[in-house]
Amino acid sequence: MTNPIQQEQTEAQKNASPVFFEQTWDLEYRHALGSTTSRFMQGLTEGKILGRKTTKGRVLVPARSFDDETHSATGEWIEVGTTGKIVMSTVVYEPFRGLPAPPYAIAYVMLEGADTALVGYVRGVELSDQATAVKAIAIGTDVVVHFAAKPTGTAADYWFEPAGV
Amino acid sequence: MFDTSTAALKAAGLTAKNIDGIVLSGNDQIDGRVIGIMASAGPTGGVNRDTTMTASAGDHALAYGYLRLKAGQGKNVLVVGWAKPSESKDPDRVELMSAEPYLLRQVGMNQTIAAALQSSVWVAQGVEKGSPDATVWPLAKNDLPGRGDSVHAAVLAVDGAFPEGSELAWILDAGWATVSYEIGARDLGDLASLRAALGQIATRNPDAAPEHWDAVEIAGDSEQAVRATVRMLDISDNVEVNGSGSLSEQLTSPHVAGLGRMMAAIRSVGKSQSPNDSSAKARMTAGIGFNGFAGQGASVMVFSSSKEKSND
Amino acid sequence: MINVGIAGFGQSKFVTKRTDVTFPELVKEGADLTLADAGIPIEDVDAFVYPLAPDALIGVSQGERWVIDALGASGKPFMRVNNGGATGMSAVLTAWTHIASGMFDVVLVAGADRVSESGSAQSVLNKMWDTGYERTVPLNTITMLALSAQRYMHLYDSTEADMALVTVKNRAHAALNPNAHLRTPITVEEVLASRTLAWPIKLGDACPASTGAAGVVLVSERYAKAHGLTPAWIRGIGQNTETFWMGNRVGPTAASDHGDADALAVAFQVAYTQAGITDPRSQIDVAEIYSPFSSVELHVIEAAGLADKGKAPLALSQGKFALGSDGPIVNPSGGVLCTNPIAVTGTIRVGEAANQVRNRAGAYQVPGARVAVASAIGGDHQFYSTMVLSTDLEEI
Predict the structure, then answer these.
(1) Coil, helix or strand for C319?
(2) Is C141 a member of any domain?
(3) Nearest to A39 by CA among C133, C102, B39, C46
(4) Do C379 and B32 touch (CB under 8 A)?
(5) Could you give all domains of chain B from N- to C-terminal order, each with its CATH number?
(6) Which CATH number does the domain housing residue C102 bear?
(7) Quick check: A71 and B15 CB within 8 A?
(8) In a domain, C27, yes or no
(9) What is the pLDDT of residues C81-128, one digit of tens each?
(10) pLDDT tens for residues B52-86?
(11) Long-range contacts of B230-234 (CB under 8 A, 24+ apart)
């Protein structure tokens, strides 16, 4: 003969829906940028994009204190141009929690005098029609760097816009 | 990481190009990164190389580097472990996230509280006394490890792959073990993970057992844990314990505390050999690290000035 | 030289959510399935290597410590690997090292993931990027691969329809795999009509966020012989690393292009050389090669030497690489595109490849498969792991 309490528990278990427990990680950080990245950010407030030269003569943009491909320290500061061409780009249409509301375009741009491309938002492009948007930011498109009027000392202080607009 | 790796490689007469493998270890949550190997492979010379992040503890990375060479994966390996708690506004809160979310996180747990719980067991046994200045009873500030940013890098290589006599130490053996997560299911004062790690070495390589050690460096979660470790090792009073400094004197972070003590043990292999005594026996040292709450995991590595008695 | 084999592979059925189990319970499921598949008791396991990629996705920091009991690992040697998306296979390579060192005979690699447990997966993955330079732009796994897909199309004049061929093939394969997450066959038109996430990546080009558990158990040759086991033998392994900076992967002075997977090709070559493979197209029967998006499989096929650079689309359009065709079959399980429980996805590649050469792949078995290659990718196309497996230890 089954234990009536046991029987009751089995009924309850059968009827129970899964139980959940919500948790959030609220961890805060204060990331040290180091002198090289800090100088790059300072350059943005001066309307400049700064790179650093490697032992092989390549200009790394954004500026970095060492070149990971040769595992060697970089040297000279180089101011690169504020015009260049898009080398990679995409338009984001999907919303992701914690990221900006779409649509928005981002691109990697090879600025004049740089050997590596810099990432940033592309603004001033009509994004509602996908085909038009994709064409407007196609590889090879000429762009110009724009700087924020009120710099924040972060990478949000620059973005790209199509040239000759 | 770039500076430390470059210095370690240079000290070994190498550059990143001559390294056959890289083993890294960092804690993403302390550093504020996700998939920390992405940011750390470059500075440690990992581009165009075989890199692995052994993320459970810095001392596991050293053990894995050792295994790689025993397995014939190249002639050398660079091991780099780090922790940069200054990036975190609240490193103790980061440790709280290691608590399972259902019960333990509600109670609140971190390395310090777990160390205190552990020490309370030794107080109950009458082996320790609670401190009158306890910040987390029974532990006082001086009982606890110092906190700071650190990077540790070591170049390991197989016999014959480097100029003879240029080595800092030979690795004789490594043992490591982790026990149950549930604090309530363990006797915290028992150091079961350490016993298991020591047992592996004793079984495999009795010549590397604690009775042969001249010095030991222990990364306990508290000075009480260091003393309990010494009791378990059952070593003579001649054996130097934590010669590189007390827990509070060494600024570290739980993730690399053990690795830091392994490094200290390696450095202490070369010292106090009398140059005039040709009959001096080989000097043997060991590093002991713990990971997780109240030593859930433990690692032991044994080093010697002589390659005899190595586990080969 | 100690030979190491894969003696068992276990996996749960992959779904979006598992509301019936805690994370440790899910891990236990995978560990139990793995050991049962191998017929090896937990007592015989000498050491554990645990695959866990971002802790944030499961919500417990150093989450490996939480699952010791689920794995049956208490009191034994244990370590965890985190190589991003390549974790599942890097952990297997670490386990290989354990056995090849001579110190261990049986090592279990088993874990789980629940990528959609956290609703913020892409926000979490945004934190992979450089703190100073790359956090203000919303880079994540989708945008980083969108850029790579665009570069491939630019380099080789390919189209989104070429990408779609991969999805069509892999979904047809997954329809035969009872454990796969996305199993519905799909047409090129349906892929092209699916909604855009980040151009050119559409929903039909992207992997799902999967929940489930998987594991493999590795054995030494002496253990296999002593217990009458016939594992899949590991004949070659490789790992290589690319630069972290995507901006470094374009332009005339770049070492390689973001549209290619040259660093992966190096890792394949290392494994091939160890295994004695000189002509992948004729010597490899099965390739379980990690491609979370359709576009990625194009350059991974090429990096594996199964097609020339830029020529994977043509081969796919000719029906190559699909079950039933001649030559190497790519991702007969449906691959990562159909199932992606991040921490163990690399482990599944090894398990599926092992089952193929042991003739245990059921409905999606490649007839007579004797040699398989498996690979995994981690970070922003930064970490690569490769492995060659075969039925026996004879020359390939």
Answers:
(1) coil
(2) no
(3) C133
(4) no
(5) 1-84+149-167 (3.40.47.10), 108-147+168-272+281-312 (3.40.47.10)
(6) 3.40.47.10
(7) yes
(8) yes
(9) 999 999 999 999 999 999 999 999 999 999 999 988 777 777 788 788
(10) 999 999 999 999 999 999 999 999 999 999 999 99
(11) B231/B127, B232/B191, B232/B194, B232/B195, B232/B198, B233/B198, B234/B210
Q: Which domain holds residue C54?
A: 4-119+209-220
Q: Would you mind telling me the total number of residues written for chain A in this entry?
A: 165
**AA letter at B42:** G
The nearest CA of chain A is from the CA of C302 a distance in Å of 21
> From residue B171, how far is each of B136, B174, C379 by CA, in Å?
37, 8, 33
Interface of C with B in 106-145 (CB under 8 A): 124-128, 130-131
Give the distance from residue B131's alpha carbon to the nearest chain C alpha carbon, in angstroms.
30
Contact list in C for residue B32 (CB cut-off 8 A) is: 127, 131
Chain B residues with CB inside 8 Å of A31's CB?
Answer: 32, 87
- Within 8 A of A64 by CB-CB distance, chain C residues are 245
Residues C211-236, buried b or exposed e (16+ Cβ, 10 A)? bbbbbbbbbbbebbeeeebebbbbbb
Residue C104 inside a domain? The answer is: yes
The answer to whether C200 and C160 have CB atoms below 8 angstroms apart is yes
With respect to residue C129, please indicate whether it lies within any of the assigned structural domains: no
- By CB atoms closer than 10 A (0-12, 13-18, 19+), residue B279 is exposed
β-strand pairing of B284-291 with B215-219: parallel
- List residues of A whose CB lies inside 8 A of any B CB: 21, 23, 25, 27-32, 65-66, 68-69, 71, 73
Domains: count for chain C: 1
List the beta bridge partners of residue A119.
A108
| Residue B144 exposed, middle or buried by CB count within 10 Å (0-12, 13-18, 19+) | buried
> Poorest-confidence range of B162-166, B170-174, C232-236?
B162-166
